[in-house]
Hints:
Blueprint: E1 5-6, H1 15-23, E2 34-42, E3 57-66, H2 77-81, E4 84-86, E5 89-93, E6 99-102, H3 104-117, H4 125-138, E7 150-159, E8 171-181, E9 191-196, H5 213-228, E10 233-237, E11 245-248, E12 252-257, E13 262-265, H6 275-287, E14 291-294, H7 298-307, E15 310-317, E16 321-330, E17 333-336, H8 345-359, E18 369-371
Parallel strand pairs: 1-3, 9-10, 9-16, 13-14
Antiparallel strand pairs: 2-3, 2-8, 4-7, 5-6, 5-7, 6-18, 7-8, 10-11, 12-13, 12-15, 15-16, 16-17
Amino acid sequence: xxxxxxxxxxxxxxxxxxxxxxxxxxxGDYLTDHMAHISYRxxxxxxxxxxxxxxxxxxxxxxxxPFGNISISPAASVFHYGQExxxxxxxxxxxxxxxxxxxxxxxxxxxxKSALRLGLPDLSIDDFVESIxxxxxxxxxxxxxxxxxxxxxxPFMIATEAFIGVGCSKEVDxxxxxxxxxxxxxxxxxxxxxVEEEFxxxxxxxxxxxKCGGNYAASLLPAAIAYEKGFSQVLYLDAADRxxxxxxxxxxxxxxxxDGSVLTPRLNGQILDSVTRRSxxxxxxxxxxxxxxxxxxxxxxxxxxxxxxxxxxFACGTAAVIASIGRLAGKGFDVQIGVEQVEGELTVSLRDExxxxxxxxxxxxxxxxxxxx
Length: 373
C-alpha cells in the first residue's frame, strides 16, 4: 500500500484540452494537473553548519496534490544561496497502452549524490521512484502515444527554511511535476554548436557533477550569446586546462572516429554523470564497439574533423536523447562534421535503439525500463 495520500484536482483538464495540447506540446510549456510532494524537517537541535542528512531528520507528509503555486518565505535559503537540486526522467506510453519510465533508479542515486554536495538531505530511492509512479498514474492521460513525444518528469528539492544566514536549511521540500514534451530540438537533424572558451559552467572541486540550478544558471548567458549567433547549444571547455572539451550546457559529448571507435570526455567531477551517457556507453560496449572515456583536446578534435579522422559527433541527455552535431564553431574555427544536414549513421543507430527500448519497440535486453501502470 502506498504511503502517498492522493488529493485529486476538482476540475482536471479535459481529454479534449489534453489532446489539443499534445498536438504541439513544445518542451516544458505545459504542466499536468497534479504534483507529488514530501516535506523534510531536521532535528531541532541540529546545528545549521552540519549537513542535514535523512539520519538527522524526518521525511513526512507524502502526498500527491493538485498542481499549483507553492508558498514559501522570501527568506528561504533556496532564493539566497541556491540550495536546490533537480532531476529529469521520461515516461513513455507503449503500443499496449502501458506506461514505462527509463532507468529511474539511476536518477534517484544521482539525486542523492547531488543532495550530498549541496548540503541537502538524501531522499530514499524508494520514495523518489514511488513519487514518480504515483503522480504519473493519476495524470496518465497526459502521456502521449504519438511518435517523438513523452512525459517529462521533473523531481526537485528546495531549501525552504526562512533564515538569512549561510548554513544548511533545516526545512526542505521535495516536489515532482510533469510536462508533456516533443523533440527538444524539433525534427531530428544535425545541430550547430558553439565552443565557449571564455565562460565556464563548472570548475575543479565545484558542483559540476551535481544536477543543481547553479550549473545551469552559469550556462544561460553563454547560451544566449551563442543563440544570437545561430547556434543551438554551447560546448564548454575544462576550466582548469582551458584546452579539453567537457560537455554541453545540458548534454554529454561524443565523437566517432572513422575506424568506428568512439570517444567521450571522462568524468572528472566537473561533468554530469548522465543516465543517457551511461546508457550509450553500455549499448556501445554490448555491440563490441570500442569506447574510450578520455581527455579530448579541442585542437585534436578540430584537426580530426578537418582530416576526416572524426566522422561524427553527437550529444545526449534525457531531454533530447541523442542529437547529431553537424557543425562546431568557436573563436578562430568553424568546421562541418560529415555531410551537411545529414545525421551520422552511428548517431541514428544509437538513438533508434535507445528510444526503441524506452518505447518498447526494441527488446529491453538490459532490463532498464520500469513499468508505472
